[in-house]
Fold these 2 entries.
Entry 1:
Amino acid sequence: MLLQRRFLRNALHTGAQLIAVMLAACILTACGFQLRGSTADATIPFKTMYIGLPDNSSLGAELKRNIRSSIGTQVVRDKKDAQAILEVLDESRERLVLSLNSQGRVREYQLNYKLRFRVIDNAGKEFLPPTTITLKRDMSFTESQLLAKESEEELLYRDMQTDLVQQLLRRLAAIKING
């Protein structure tokens, strides 16, 4: 009898959990929620595009690689051949002190990566006005692990660069061309 009660209680509990999960799924789909998906699915509305970053720039290389993988967009070397021009107005990295320990030594940094850009056509008409993307990451710091912390900082900047490229591609995909 005791086993039957436990079994019945567990079955009811499991059934209630199943109903709660199904209800949550129905609510999420009803409100229009949908996963963002990859930026490879996003289509940039331009046939040709010029990227105003140097060839030796890691940001430029990653951005060009991602745009080339976009269906139907070709990265060109000359502004005159481009339907759209991505002008980079400012790109900066910054490391700020967030906190100090009791001896006055740095305990935590904030890493900032900022890109300011705009998208125009070769006649100067703006498709996207000057826009800024700012990314921030916090990083703990220990002097005794200096080399490891320098490597961690570089990894964080690389991660921010990848995130920045994805945000930039989403903004490019959202541009509407009139005519």
Entry 2:
Amino acid sequence: MDKRHLVRLSDAAFLSAIGLDAASKTQLARAIPVAPTVSESAADELWSRRRDYFFKPATGFGGRAAYRGDKLTRRVRGDPRW
């Protein structure tokens, strides 16, 4: 499954834009955690709050290549900004 779908399904503005009713939005909010996209513009904020998140490649399968934010290091990420 492509994890980018979780980004959209946790975005209230997107759900409103597609006309989803309030009850369905509430149900999705209970079942799907907020899933922000890791981008260059959000990198610093996500790094500072990484302990609140799990990180997963968009096309990763199952539990493979998932990183707990509190265990994520700059070396693991492979990017000097991370």
